[in-house]
Design goal:
The chain is an alpha/beta fold and about 500 residues long. About 40% of the residues lie in helices and about 20% in strands. The protein contains 19 helices and 22 strands. The strands form 6 sheets. Strands 11-13-14-9-8-16-17 form a 7-stranded mixed sheet, with helices on both faces. The chain has a 6-stranded mixed sheet with strand order 5-4-3-6-7-20, with helices on both faces. Helix 8 (about 205-215) links the parallel strand 6 (about 200) and strand 7. The longest helix is centred in the first third of the chain and has 26 residues, at about 70-95. It starts with a helix and ends in an 11-residue tail after the last helix.
């Protein structure tokens, strides 16, 4: 059976419960009703199955998207296993309901609490650049929250993602998890022909806009994790060697095909020569990297050539042509600030290096670009301690993730969420915020049958007491009868009688 046969077969069926004699976690169609403790218990078996299938998953990833064996292990399988472990320990706390305090005095006899329930049926449109990690964590969160899930795998990584989906489906009740074919038409049909309660999409801003427009017609909520084209800010007190190494590692990780990788380094002029001195040998020592396709490699190379044509200088001295999907990473100094390279309109191992006179000018340059997902700031340890708590600065960076003296790697923390700003999308995935986003909050109240707030309009003296207890102040003299009269008062006014004046002291 071919991969496409397998994909089309799975597009017509839902995942069945295991037939090996083990009892499913819940009866068919009752995953939503299964206690949270049982869903968390299911994660233990999933963790074991993923760990036991590491070599299979890594082999598929390497064959389909060109990652090295180690990179597939370290950036896909390991983060997923760590995330499963984290959810086993913390999902109960994150999804827990509880009483709500702060009840006003006049709600006597009422008790309030918040409960979290599944959103319902979730669609996940998967991406290819981290085919096991990203889809796997989204599946963990959707399922442990109690949802039914339908997945559209990426057309670039069907074997990796089908293998992963089979591991998830192995101990789930029928009707809980299903998936479609991996081709583009299947994704279009998914949103056109079916209705969901929430859609999670990871991919480009262009396709994300289409997903948002389609879902808006049915008012379907979405989580959009879109392209990040972010900056690395290198401040005057940074360690130039640390900054150069950390930024270049992030640029070349996964052949530059990471949405949170820096696309440009904005370097303070006072450290500029020392930073370039440290960056140059790293760029020169880089060998060709395998991108996902020849088209992707050609696109990145063209962005670099255009930046050089606009006045930039390649740090290596020359811009090499791709060899199929393989291309040697490049960095370009200066050039047009609005070139495709500086704007980050590429998805590969290339970096624009730009100069700024101060932190303010670096911030202004950073904010000229419209896609903010993850920003890295390189500075002294003392500055990092101060700036990492400066909420004004963090807000001005306009990013969902800010890392100090590192890039990309800290985002693998299982509790850390990713949330785009502007053209980088909306909503959160991963971490506590991502888990909560795949459940919904229900406000629940219970009112005593014997101790209840009276209904109807009370007598004026009672209204006066009510105002004072509520901190609204006493009625102004001479107006209380007119302002607060009931039906009887209105009748008196219509009959020509003077309203009764009540004095409150």
């Amino acid at each position: 059976m071919t991969v496409m046969d397998l994909m089309h077969q799975n597009s017509r069926r839902t995942a069945a419960a295991s037939s090996g004699g083990s009892r499913a976690v819940a009866r068919p169609h009752e995953w939503v009703a299964a206690p949270l403790a049982e869903r968390i218990s299911w994660l233990a078996g999933l963790q074991s199955r993923v760990a036991a299938s590491t070599d299979t998953l890594v082999g598929h990833i390497s064959a389909e998207v060109g990652k090295s064996w180690w990179e597939a292990l370290a950036t896909d399988v390991l983060p997923l296993v760590d995330s499963i472990r984290w959810h086993r320990r913390h999902a109960a706390r994150v999804l827990a309901g509880g009483p709500v305090g702060g009840r006003p005095w006049w709600m006597v006899g009422m008790s309030h609490r918040i409960e979290r329930v599944p959103v319902g049926h979730v669609a996940i449109i998967a991406t290819w650049n981290y085919p096991v990690q990203l889809l796997g964590i989204q599946l963990v969160q959707a399922l442990v929250a109690g949802n039914r899930v339908t997945v559209k795998p990426s057309e670039r990584s069907p074997r990796s993602q089908v293998a992963l989906l089979e591991l998830f489906a192995e101990r789930l009740p029928p009707g809980t998890l299903d998936w479609t074919a991996s081709d583009r038409a299947a994704g279009e049909a998914l949103l056109r022909d079916r209705r969901f309660d929430h859609v999670v999409f990871t991919g480009s801003t262009e396709v994300g806009r289409t997903v948002a427009e389609t879902c808006a017609r049915t008012l379907t909520p979405t989580t959009l994790e879109l392209s990040g084209c972010d900056s690395a800010l290198v401040l005057a007190d940074a360690d130039p060697a640390l900054a150069a190494r950390g930024i270049w590692d992030a640029v070349t990780m996964n052949a530059g095909q990471t949405c949170m990788a820096p696309r440009r380094a904005i370097v303070d002029a006072r450290i500029w020569p020392r930073f370039l001195e440290r960056l140059a040998p790293l760029v020169g020592a880089s060998g060709p990297l395998q991108l996902v396709s020849a088209e992707s490699a050609s696109r990145v190379a063209q962005c670099v050539r255009d930046a050089v044509a606009s006045g930039g200088r390649p740090l290596r001295g020359v811009v090499e042509e791709p060899s199929g999907a393989r291309w040697r990473p490049s960095a370009v100094i200066g050039g047009d600030l609005m070139s495709e390279l500086a704007r980050g309109r590429h998805f590969g191992p290339a970096l624009a290096v730009l100069a700024a006179d101060s932190l303010d000018s670096a911030m202004a340059l950073h904010r000229r670009f419209d896609q903010h997902l993850a920003v890295s700031v390189w500075c002294s340890a003392q500055s990092a301690r101060r700036m990492s708590r400066d909420r004004t600065l963090l807000a001005a960076l306009s990013a969902g993730v800010v890392t100090f003296n590192d890039a990309v790697r800290p985002t693998a923390h299982p509790a850390a969420s990713i949330a785009g700003i502007g053209s980088s999308g909306w909503g959160a995935t991963r971490g506590e915020a991502g888990l909560r986003a795949l459940s919904r909050e229900v406000a629940v109240s219970t009112t005593s049958a014997s101790l209840r707030t009276p209904v109807g309009e009370p007598a004026l003296p009672v209204q006066s007491i009510f105002r004072r207890l509520s901190g609204l102040g006493a009625p102004r003299r001479g107006r209380s009868g007119i302002a607060s009269c009931g039906a009887g008062g209105g009748d008196r006014l219509r009959s020509g009688a003077s309203p009764t004046r009540t004095s409150h002291t």
